[in-house]
Amino acid sequence: MFRPSSVGRFVRPFRGLVRPRSGGRTPLAALLPLAVLSGLLVLAPPAAAADDVRTEDALVESGSGADAVELDTTLYVPAAAEDEPAPAVVLAHGFGGSKRSVADDALVLAEQGYVVLTYSARGFGRSTGQIGLNDPRYEIADLSTLLDLLAERDEVALDGDGDPRVGVAGGSYGGALALLGAAYDDRVDAIAPQITWNSLTSALFPSQIGATPDAGTVAATPQDSDAGVYKKLWAGLFFGVGSVPTGGLLGSLGLGGGGDGDDGATANGDGAPETPGLDPAAVDPETLEQALTCGRFRLDICQAYQAAAATGTLTPEVAAVLDRSSPAAVLDRIEAPTLLIQGTQDSLFGLGQADANARGIAANGTPVKVVWYAGGHDAQASDRVTENLRDQVAGWFDFHLRADGDPLRGDDPGTGFEFPAPTGLGGTGVGTVQGGTQTIVADAYPGIDGAGPAARTELAMSGPTQPVVTPAGGTPAAITTVPGLGSLGSALGGAAVEIPGQFAAFDSEPLDDAVEVVGAPTVELAVSSPSGSATLFAKLYDVAPGGAMTLPAGLTAPLALTGVSTDPAAPTTVQVTLPGIVHRFEAGHTMRVVVSSTDQAFALPAEAAVYSVGIAAGTTELAVPQVAGDAQAQAGSSRWWVLLAVAVGLVLLGWVAAMLWGQRRRRQVSHVEPDGEDVPLRFEGVTKAYKDGFVAVRDLSFEVRRGQVLGLLGPNGAGKTTSLRMLMGLIRPNEGRISIFGHAAGPGAPVLSRLGSFVEGTGLQPHLSGRDNLRLYWAATGRPAADAHMDEAIEVAGLGTAIDRPVRRYSQGMRQRVAIAQAMLGLPDLLVLDEPTNGLDPPQIHAMREVLRSYAATGRTVIVSSHLLSEIEQTCSHVVVMAKGQKIAQGTVEEIVGTGGAVSIGLVDDAETDRAAEILEGLPGVTVERTDEGLVADLVGTSRARALQALIEAGVEVDQFTPRRRLEDAFLALVGES
């Protein structure tokens, strides 16, 4: 059964076990794109076991008949175990990894005196067979085979005949194996599963609605057993990792195959080798199609994925496959003391999955300790956190696997609860989660093992019932978390991307004191849907006093609603559990519950609809869980004095630097300009450059006064749109300052509420009427309906009865007018319009011109960017001309046009033409051209008044003397000069 393999060298991959990720450097934590993953595991540097640890590589046969496989294993044997048998630990890797993924952690445990067995699960690495997703008939049976093997080793301590003293640990895929293994094989003495699932069904088809049994725990998350919202991106990544056929699989089909990275073959990064040329004639077409379509997955799993991906629905057949691989149904069998480690930055397996495991195992009287840490599938833990977790796992096994009297037996780790100290930081970002230097330790996990229920604080939420649009096909969709890359909001200043009109928002009052949320808050909503069903996504934002929004960990709670009221006047009350988080909401901040209709990570309804969402009547509270505990530093704190000395030195250096630069820094601090109300917009030395070196705007400075209509002119690439995007807070300048009414402009700045804009497209929902589009847009701002001035905006649109027709039946000009009316909702003090007359006919252009002039006459300010120079000339009072990112002219229209130019001259007596031309050409810098209409004099160095005076003094009778220079002429001259 246990025979040597041909593996000739040992390769150290990235750490996998006690650095809690799945599979090596977690393919699922760095999966986007998959091509990146492919390079990670191949480039692992070589390593060797310590001198006092020897390794044995072997292929182990498991299973029988068609399901027989060979498992590629490595056994780590410490020298001390040769004389005195030691406990054993089986390390299981994450999905997409192999035995190499946990090699470093195996060495650490072996050096601490454990016999450690690592192996590649069937379908991964050099092991043969197909992936069964921890099916008890296959992967869990393989674990029992490995326990049989350990029981035969003289170096392994036994609890009885054929019963090794053994612990099992692993992350994600390996963590589920540890749980299922302990449930199906009672020889397992202790387990340490990490960032793993309780129910694969609820993880991939979540729906966080309804009541939760035993809700005294902090992160209890309900799950509708019959329905859920398909987590399509994560599921697709799972299947993508396992869809490449291995050499072992192809070899079993008679199609050839090679080794993996262990023996020098070129691997694709997840343990699957590059396959040599296939010979389709060597196998029947059906088998070949299955191998190429399903890769390493068993056929039933492949078919379940294909059905879910095609329909986005949870069918009984799909549920049966996922439930078979879920510990949820067998937690009552687990008697092995369990250390549950779960990450707070995890959109795949959230804190609710660990909560359900803790409740289920503790209900059987089994000791359970729960540890949350800053990291997960969306972001790696910091080195400090990783060191602490490695010590936690080793300490758990030291106590539960070593016998009384063993000098290596550690102290009782207890059954408490640990979590990272809450901070106000939100998105996880790509890479490592920094910080987490403190851990909060509580005596017990609330709600289990005799501990009382979690304490909850109730906060009143306010906001009207709001319409929420779900667009046809689910596009565009909100962006919260990109699987494996954490919260996208970190790249956007902490805010996720919500689509106007697609969400409802409800706010608490600003907090008097900081609130630390540890777990999953709950709220009750009132929902109605025309079809009786709805797909929604609930999330809890942290809103700073300045308006900046942060979505903790980028997490959202999907809601699959059926049987809800179709009458908005009598909505259905829905109990909702928001995502489990660890976050500190500072004093002065606001908690905002947002309920949206889309999220790009999930499957969405194809049909368009408008839902009604509000806070349930009589239950306006948001209940947030809180946990008290003692703060302690994490691993590595024994060297605190060294760190303190370094910190003191840095502080002293910083103090000196601060003294030198303090005055300059204070001048850069945002302040309110005293003339802000008189100068609605000011650019001061603004520059925007991109990483490729392109400078879109360079040292741009100008100001706009109240009551002006300013035209922003320039050829394509002049920097006009970039300037407007910086003004609106969509992008940040590299240098300089933009102020609106004296306040610094930037993403989320409160002063932006005084700005109305129409830039780069209308953004209207085609299936809604113009009136409904205006209503939805205003509802998305969260401001009272009475402040919208809806009637005035509809009058601006000038559509008559067409305002109540679907926008899809509008012409381009009609859409343009509705979009401008939308920008004017609330009568903003500063109105910014980009190409407002596109698609309008001449009468409409004339009407729009009058609207803008009248609007500015009320004391408000208008900015217009347009390529129709004649319209700028007739509409605007002032002009800023740009070229190549720089301002080349600024002034009133008259000032820009009146500089030099030409005049058209008509004479009473045509016989005087030659004499008039001679008089004019005698003036400095004047040239004269004869045309059918008369004379055209180009005046350079001579004013129009002086030229006219010269003709009159010479007795030439002038019938017409009109400027020929237009704004277009001035613009072309200025741009040419630049």
From TrEMBL:
Residues 260-283 are annotated as: Disordered. PROSITE patterns: ABC_TRANSPORTER_1, ABC_TRANSPORTER_2. Residues 264-273 have a biased composition (Low complexity). Gene3D superfamilies: alpha/beta hydrolase, Galactose-binding domain-like, P-loop containing nucleotide triphosphate hydrolases. It holds the Pfam family ABC_tran. The chain crosses the membrane at residues 640-661. Keywords: ATP-binding, Hydrolase, Membrane, Nucleotide-binding, Transmembrane, Transmembrane helix, Transport. Residues 681-909 form the ABC transporter domain. It comes from the Bacteria. GO terms for molecular function: hydrolase activity. Belongs to the ABC transporter superfamily. PANTHER family: ABC TRANSPORTER, ATP-BINDING PROTEIN (PTHR43335). This is Alpha/beta fold hydrolase. It comes from Blastococcus jejuensis.
